[in-house]
Amino acid sequence: xxxxxxxxxxxxxxxxNGIRLYATVPDYIVSxxxxxxxxxxxxxxxTATREEEAVGLLSGAWLAGHRGALLMQNSGLGNCxxxxxxxxxxxxxxxxxxxxxxxDLGEFNPAQVPMGRxxxxxxxxxxxxxxxxxxxxxxxxxxxxxxxxxxxxxxPVAIVLPSELTGGKKx
Amino acid sequence: xxxxxxxxxxRYLASRVKNEVLVSNLGQASLDLLAIADRPLNCYTxxxxxxxxxxxxxxxxxxxxxxxxxxxxxxxLLMNLGSLCTIAAEAPKNYVLMVWDNEVHQTTGGQATxxxxxxxxxxxxxxxxxxxxxxVRTQEELERAVDRILKEDGPFIVVVKIDKxxxxxxxxxxxxxxxxxxxxxxxxxxxx
Lengths: 171, 192
Fold this sequence. Notes:
The complex is a heterodimer of chains A (171) and B (192). Helices cover 50% and strands 16% of the residues of chain A. Chain A is built from seven helices and six strands. In chain A, β3 (68-73), α4 and β4 form a beta-alpha-beta unit. With 192 residues, chain B is an alpha/beta fold. Chain B has a single domain (6-188), classed as Rossmann fold (3-Layer(aba) Sandwich). At the A-B interface, β2, α3 and α4 of A face α3, α5 and α8 of B.
């Protein structure tokens, strides 16, 4: 049984690293993080129609001086791979990606499985540094360093949220 | 054949802007803007086809005191029509989406886009909830539209029907340098 406070830990680590602007295409798992952020008057959440659009928006916000994070399902990575490569990586525009890992342990929907299997390979192929904490302790241990790396290197990074951490989606 | 050209319309718009940010779409829009009116507050985009309007929206949200004018293309905007819904929902007053609509994918060889057939980008934008939509076909209409977007609250969409034709301007490969220059210039612009 996952510790339900995982979502608050994710929200807190993003906030304590100066991220106030969030864009999302809704997902059941990351919605728990968005509940925390949406209730914070210092944070702004923009709902996009597609993940690629959210990449563009957050990249523009960074050019205007604001840190941003994209919260999505891992299927959305496929919808924004080109923007991450040809905008963020090519122009050195940092961005924090936060994505649930559907299609892995405990998955109920066969359609999620292929992207679930491909997820870390896609991130590796793009050269995007990622972490995949399976406990709150690992999340707390790794995430500050990952976000620091994002802005030091001016490159996108990814926080993958596996079902061991979040409890996944039951059906 | 339209009496307006992208280069001519770019030259006119550039003559009117001061502290406004111009965000140009990859390919033709960026080539012409760079050659005709390079300035540090120009944000050229080089990749992520379709994202010009979204990048501009992020800049407008990040700097609500600065007017942001995107110079998109019809083919690119057609790839990211959902952006129009997000622009309408967020409704930044400082946001303008201009579209150089020549009804073709110019950079890839002039293949027709949907605006050459049935689609109206102003009509689609109105349906998405952007109430201020203007279609421009003449120099006089362009001048009237620019008067409005520099004065009135947005969000606006201005679709400028232009003649077909590729930019003859050279490509600048310093993608990182151009992006960095823009970010610094915007940061240095005092809050209005």
